[in-house]
Design goal:
The protein has about 140 residues and is of the alpha+beta class. The protein has 5 helices and 5 strands, in the order H-E-E-E-H-H-H-E-E-H. The relative contact order is 0.12.
Amino acid sequence: NKQGQTRLAQYYDYMTIQEKCAVEGEIIRKCLARTENQCSFLEYRQFKCIYRRYASLFFIVGVDGEQNELSILEFIHSLVETLDKYFENVCELDIMFNIERAHFILDEMVMNGHIVETNKKQILRPIKLMDSHKDVAA
């Protein structure tokens, strides 16, 4: 968010908690300092960071140097569209209070650091199935 608080994070390479906090803090500060006229790509250490702002939320993806930046921008857009479809206009509170659902959506889209699915219906099918079973059990 605009205050620099991480709401959803997923790592596919090992980092200690201290390293994660340091990296997140530095990258978030760099993204927040950029203007809307600057491009959505920046380099940080050995990573490329691709970010996109939606209202008060920043979606930031760090990749190695071999990834296509535009495909990651498209992935971010697809993730936001999928979250929007599930939460019906996603906001920060949806992610905060339904963090496990947000992680399920991300896990359906990315496996071991590789994008495996971008079709919204396919992504949401198992999550809606879990929701329907939860409603039946309640």
